[in-house]
Amino acid sequence: MLFVIVPIIREVYSRQRIPYFDTTQLIQVEEGKYVDIEFAISQSYSFPRAPCADEKYLEIRDGYNQPANLLGVFCGRNTPFFTRRSSGRSMWLSFSSQHRYRFQHDSSYEGKAINETGTQDCNFFPNSSQDEKFIFNSMSLSLVPANLSEVPQTQFVLFNHSSSLWCLVDGEPAPRIVWRKNGDVVQNSTSVRYRLNITEEERNTNYSCEVDDTGQLQKKNISRVIESKHHLSILDNMRTIPEKYLR
To answer: Rounded to the nearest 5°, which phi and psi values hold at 45?
Structure first.
């Protein structure tokens, strides 16, 4: 009698549940890897008012503490699943006070090897200035392309008050984002947020954000709607979207 041994290959599930935490949580993976997190958050309908209007939210940052670059701000009564990725081994999660959120059951994270996505230092745009070459030399080329499709082209800002512009870029690992003001580089990091103060002189200023997409430059010009503080607060409280750009 002939016996044939057929090997059974089982998929190894490397993802880990996001641990329960009250206000802050540091997630770290092995050296040489970056954090890939998939999550959804929800809040009981028994709590009054919309969570986004109450500024109850989750922040995700690219590093090991609160000052690290911002990867996203999330809120909503019952959000869809989001995916965010760090640029290194650390990711910082922070709930606002009195948040009353919980992660949904399948929320998880894992560490992915940076060299598995084909990241490397690169030198693009041979006709660029020396400053621009330096900027893009520090970018990472990833096999998972950066995507600017979620970046709103028109954004609201406050006149004569601290505001933010948002460039919510998806990529793996987290791509570097270059912010430009009238064509000049003003920020080069993994942060999706650029802070500014709109004065009378700033009314005609042009802003854009750009990323490298597997060797090709992607750019999004951002138009601003300048409002007074009172007017914008009313508009802002009406927004109960799953993911919110906080000012």
So the answer is: -70, -10
